[in-house]
Amino acid sequence: MKLLHIDASVLGDNSVSRQLSAAVVQQWRDQVPDLQVSYRDLDAQPVAHLRSSSLAQSDPAEAADAEQVLTQFLDADVVVIGSPMYNFSVASTLKAWIDRLAVAGRTFKYTENGPVGLAGGKRVIVASSRGGLHTGAPTDFQDPYLRQVFAFFGIDNVEFVRAEGIAYSPQHRTDAIAGALAALPQPQALAA
Predict the structure, then answer these.
(1) Would you give the distance in Å from CA 97 to the centre of its chain?
(2) What is the CA radius of gyration of the chain?
(3) Nearest to 166 by CA among 133, 127, 126
(4) Burial letters 141-178, b for 16+ CB under 10 A, else e
(5) What does pTM read for this prediction?
(6) Residue-wise pLDDT tens digits, 88-125
(7) CA-CA distance, 101 to 107, in Å (whole number)?
(8) Which of the chain's termini has less CB crowding within 10 Å, N or C?
(9) What is the tens place of the pLDDT at every residue in 61-81?
(10) Are 140 and 86 within 8 A, CB to CB?
């Protein structure tokens, strides 16, 4: 089984989403024999933002990286994403990564009846951190966006584990992290 681990936070060791995504991956390592894990830190190794030159593939290094990003995603059985909420949505580096996944004929296709996802059969676990409280609120453009984009790729198995209100106080932060860690999805259920 192959697991792809993506982190998007710019906060390094102070990142709650990184702490949560690492806990999810460690749980999988502990419980799934022969698990193959690949990792990309989008802060340390960002994917180039999509430009006209990207589509023209005029930069061979950028084109090779884009193909590697797409291939890693397509090869993965499970994708774990550390995604902090920035300005009510996802980090721009995560959006740039997603832009490289949205490739007609590879992750989706258009038909007479509309789009069809081609990357189904995967499990996506999003480890989310938020300074405020946004779940179910009109200020949440993170969860709906991620659910929609992965559904567009044919992936309907998207789970969120989140720590919210972490900027309210040190106690809120501690409680939110503890609650998120207690709610981590179990690998056995995910691999089924």
Answers:
(1) 9
(2) 17
(3) 133
(4) ebbebbbebbebbbbeebbbbbbbbbeeeeebbeebbe
(5) 0.94
(6) 999 999 999 999 999 999 999 999 999 999 999 999 99
(7) 7
(8) C
(9) 999 999 999 999 999 999 999
(10) no
